[in-house]
Amino acid sequence: MPQLRTGFIFIFLFCILAAASDARATPADWRARLNEELPLLGHRNWIAVVDSAYPLQTSAGIETIETDADQLDVVRAVLDALSKTKHVRPVIFTDSELKLVSESDAPGVTAYRDQLANLLKTSGAQSLPHEQIISRLDEAGKTFHILILKTRMTIPYTSVFLRLDCGYWTDNQEKQLREKMGKQ
To answer: In this structure, are residues 74 and 154 in contact, taking their beta carbons and an 8 Å threshold?
Structure first.
């Protein structure tokens, strides 16, 4: 009987460990996870591409995946994936603090800023204070899914936040609809 109990415990622990390892995406499959989730995401969901010191958030709606990849490569991949969708479009936010981080304090920041600016040049990206963006993310995470892709970046205030909006309905169309509703 003790051998049976020991065997059962071993199998039980093995199953728990196997399930736990499957629950977390590995760095190699972050692209697959992004492609898996993208059809499910809609307006009010967020995707954040963050630096390596970004904290692991505990809100139930927030999922963090370690990419072990270059930050600009991840931003580029996310923008590319979003450009192929019809149902969502990104509204992009960057930290306003990034403009003030000096090269002497964070070597490589100038090149990063230049490359990011080039990558986002036609996106209409908005800069807001980091804490303001985090507050928006925290609030959204209470109700909506947030996908955080953590990178190897070691320069502060380099995160790129993408709030998803409807891809087939513009802000102007929404405004016009609301105006019509107000006239009724």
So the answer is: no
Task: Quote helix, strand, coil % in the chain, to nearest 5.
Answer: 50, 20, 35
The DSSP output letter for 51 is: -
Question: How far is 48 from 147, CA to CA, in rounded Å?
Answer: 6
Contact 69, 30 (CB under 8 A): yes
Structurally, what CATH architecture does the domain formed by 29-183 represent?
3-Layer(aba) Sandwich (3.40)
Residue 91 vs residues 25, 71, 94, 101, 107: alpha-carbon distances, Å: 26, 18, 10, 24, 28
Domain boundaries, given as residue ranges, for the chain = 29-183
- Residue 183: the pLDDT is 84
Does the pLDDT of residue 166 top 80, yes or no? yes
Query: Angle 132-136-140 (CA atoms, 0-180°, nearest 5)?
Result: 170
Q: What is the pLDDT of residue 47?
A: 98
